[in-house]
Design a protein that fits this description.
Order of helices and strands: EHEHHHHHHHHEEH
Strand content: 5-15%
Number of strands: 4
Helix content: 55-70%
Distance between the termini: 17 Å
Radius of gyration: 17 Å
Structural class: alpha+beta
Strand order of the largest sheet: 2-1-3-4
Shape: globular
Length: about 210
């Protein structure tokens, strides 16, 4: 971290639409705030399991509200999340472990692609409503994000390696250690302490806490 800059870590999973909103907003703020933004791909399923949390949409009234809320947030922040009622079932039926391991592998080897690759996964899942759990789709996402076919293939082979699996598990455990129970979990390191902010609607509050 450069002198006087606040380290801000974003723990995210591409299955989470609120994480996409938080990701895009922080990508914008990093150019105007005195922060070092660090993307921390983690596994939401692991966090939910460890903390006993349940997908919010399992509560019907909350699902009804989230539908409106995500549409309003998407419009306000100009992020192309397209959501409808059957998306909640789709989310519960989609495993993002492979995608998050793939994103972890890029973080470990070619971190300059981390931002465009993550964005491309969200676009495919939340804008184009395509599956992101199959290897062929993962490779298509990678190509769209500007990775060569060779690199994408190499990363796909890496997702079954202990190194990648362990890194994703460790990052997920780190988020839990900071107090995360869902995503996005944003941790600002300020005055020698980590400050956890949950959700994509607390980022202005985060700015205020770190003196922006």
């Amino acid at each position: 971290v450069s002198m006087g800059r606040t380290l801000v870590e974003l723990f995210y999973d591409v299955v989470s639409p609120y994480s996409w909103l938080g990701f895009e907003v922080l990508c914008r703020y990093q150019h105007i705030w005195n922060i070092d933004l660090r993307f921390r791909p983690a596994f939401l399923g692991g966090i939910m399991q460890a903390t006993g949390n349940k997908p919010p949409a399992m509560l019907p009234k909350r699902a009804e509200y989230m539908l409106k809320d995500i549409k309003r947030m998407a419009k306000y922040y100009q992020v192309p999340v397209q959501i409808s009622e059957n998306d909640f079932q789709r989310v519960l039926g989609t495993g993002t472990l492979g995608a998050m391991r793939f994103i972890t592998a890029i973080d470990m080897t070619q971190p300059q692609y981390l931002e465009p690759l993550s964005r491309e996964f969200w676009l495919r899942f939340w804008s184009q409503h395509e599956d992101i759990s199959q290897p062929a789709n993962i490779l298509a996402v990678a190509r769209q994000a500007g990775l060569s076919s060779e690199l994408a293939q190499k990363l796909l082979e890496m997702i079954s390696s202990p190194a990648v699996k362990n890194r994703l598990r460790e990052t997920t455990e780190e988020a839990i250690k900071y107090g995360a129970f869902g995503m996005p979990a944003v941790v600002a390191h300020f005055n020698g302490e980590p400050h956890l902010f949950f959700g994509s609607d607390r980022l202005e509050l985060l700015g205020s806490v770190i003196g922006e």
